[in-house]
Amino acid sequence: MTLERDTLISAEENREMFDRIAKNYDVANRAISMGMDKVWRRKTVELLKPFSGGRYLDVGTGTGDLVFEILDQSANVLIDGIDPAEQMLAIAKDKAEERGVGDAVSFFFADVLDLPMESETFDGIVSGFCFRN
After folding, report:
1. Residue 61 contacts residue 129 (beta carbons within 8 Å)
2. Quick check: pTM over 0.90?
3. At the N or C end, where does the chain have fewer CB atoms within 10 A?
4. What is the separation, in whole angstroms, between the first and last Cα of the chain?
5. Element (H, E) at 107
6. Could you give the CA distance from residue 79 to residue 9 in angstroms, rounded to a whole number?
7. 10-132: CATH number
8. In whole angstroms, what is the distance from residue 80 CA to residue 55 CA?
């Protein structure tokens, strides 16, 4: 299958788009998925099987909902979330502060192709909706 260039957007255009929609992203995602996004996150964490003392990475963390689902289902874990959209990360950081989970969570402005972490750091890696974009 070949895609025409005009059907694709650049990484920068993708970043800019998510920065623009960040404030409305969670509500839109719930509406578009008809609430199934919550089920998908719960199932993702069940498949991940996080264990106490483990460290996990959420690629394309967006506003952090998958990170928080891991925390809701797991005790004593550390989670790093990366995303190339700064406005999405700002919301994720605000949510972490509101929930009082700052000790367990770190968010990084990063591209999955250039991670700011050492190799073999994580016990598991997840991604919610990263690959659709």
Report:
1. no
2. no
3. N
4. 17
5. strand 105-109
6. 29
7. 3.40.50.150
8. 8
- The per-residue pLDDT for range 15-49, each reduced to its tens digit, is 888 889 889 988 888 898 898 889 999 999 999 99
Three-class secondary structure of residue 119 per DSSP: coil
Residue 17 structure tokens: 């788009």
Amino acid at 114: D
Who's near 11: CB < 8 A, 6+ residues apart?
A: 84, 111
86, 44, 102, 92: CA torsion to nearest 10: 30
Q: Please state whether beta strands 105-109 and 124-126 pair in parallel, antiparallel, or not at all (unpaired).
A: unpaired
CB atoms inside a 10 Å sphere around CB 97: 11
The token pair that represents 68 in the structure block: 């928080």
The tens digit of pLDDT for each residue in 75-130 reads 999 999 999 999 999 999 999 999 999 999 999 999 888 888 888 999 999 998 76
